[in-house]
Specification:
The protein is α+β, with helices and mostly antiparallel strands. The chain has 20 helices and 21 strands. Strands 3, 4, 5, 6, 7 and 8 form a 6-stranded antiparallel beta sheet that branches. A 6-stranded mixed beta sheet has the order 10-11-12-15-16-21, with helices on both faces. Helix 15 crosses helix 18 and helix 18 runs antiparallel to helix 19.
Length: about 550
Amino acid sequence: MRQNRSGRYTPLLMALCVAIGIVIGTFYANHFSGNRLNIINSGSNRLNNLLHIVDDQYVDHVNIDSLVDKAIPQILADLDPHSVYINAKNVQAANDELKGSFSGVGIEFTIRQDTIRVQNVIKNGPAERAGILAGDKIVRIDGKLFVGKEVTNEEAMRKLKGPKDTKVKVGVIRYGQKGVKEMTVTRGDIPQRSISATYMLDENTGYIRIKSFGETTYPDLLISLAKLSQENFSNLVIDLRDNTGGYLQSAVQMANEFLPKNKLIVYTEGRKSPRQEYRSDGHGSYQNIPIIVLINEGSASASEIFAGAIQDNDRGTIIGRRSFGKGLVQQQLAFTDGSLIRLTIARYYTPSGRCIQKPYTPGKDGGYEQDLLERYQHGEFFSQDSIKHTGPVYHTSIGREVYGGGGITPDIFIAEDTLNMTSYFKQAMMSGLILQFAFTYTDNNRIKLNNFQEMMELSNYLVKQNMVEQFATYADKNGLKRRNLMIQKSHKLLERYINSRIIYNMQDEESWNKYINLDDPAISKALEVFKKNESVPRKPEKTTSARKSHKK
């Protein structure tokens, strides 16, 4: 009887167990599949899973490393214009730009007609010690012919650079000699000069041209200042035009040399980076010397930090055109494969509280890249009234108005010279024909030009050679039709550019700077300001502004 009752409930119990099993199974299936989807849908794991799936299941073989190299820049580009990825093979070259030296043979070269042409030889460098001369053509490297389409800047650098004390064998063809001359160069440390010129503009005014902010910029500056001290300079021009920046610390050290104690130089701040201030320590040796800083649209980052510190502390006068506007701080982070990213972690702010960074739209860098062209078309390079100040007004230590919204606006504006500009001159420059002509002329006349050791001697000689006419004939044979009226109008610009390149080829960068500064309007204005004793800004009598004022 009992067995019958229990058997009667068996189907019911089985159905109940199945139902419970379905409920439990459904619960765990939903629970764990939900977790799995959550994991897959989180950003980093989705990327990892995608790469694994492609590697495991894609129809053709895929180089995953190459795929990653292409993907990472796209991701960073959606953040800001200055967060970048550098693959392992390009890391060395990227870091060499800011280091004080690199290991190589010690030549400056250009590539013409698929051949390396030695433009300059670094004094006391490995190439000079091996006997290589400016004008030599390098046609073989380590016993193998190196001419033709394979000759690119990248490939030439790869073959000529290398670890210190290693050897490279080069075969050169020299003007006036037959055959290929073989030479062995022992690679060595080649100094990277961040200061390209140090000399006296007149009996009172020293001049220093700084083209980048690298590891050795500050000690190099001290050497330059010591050199000028021996010539009893009492005023100083620091030229930062077309200086795209570099290390923050170098700019801070430089500003410290000219500021009294406890002056704010710059501060940085970001979402995960608390405000960090950089102040002067009062140990600078040139805290009282009258100073003028030259900037233009090519001055960026560390250049803007230095110019902003001088301007906001009312320490000196800024002359030129509005700077680029790069105020994002990058931190360098390395991957195990040797590649790295430079990730933006903060922003720079000048002492008055201005953010140096110009506006940008994340992921849309087309307008950002076109900014300088838009400034040019808007007329900002030619008229101070055309400068568009989109940011708020800030105030310097004595109450002068300065503007946010990107870049450093100079105290004294210098327009770009367009009076003698013609389409012929623009074509001559953009086509590279002036550079080609200058090198060809130098190469063909090197023996004669070697007789002129001083810049002015060489300049006076070149003026007598009617270089513009020689260039016009050369250009006409190489695709740029002669335009006599335009050539006449642009004669001064053409002569200046042609002669400057020949002087650079024959002498050095300092001689080139001395030559182009001879009739530079920014240099002339700086000397005028010093003569009037007006390099130190004066407190405005009355400060008014229709804009909202900010002070940090």
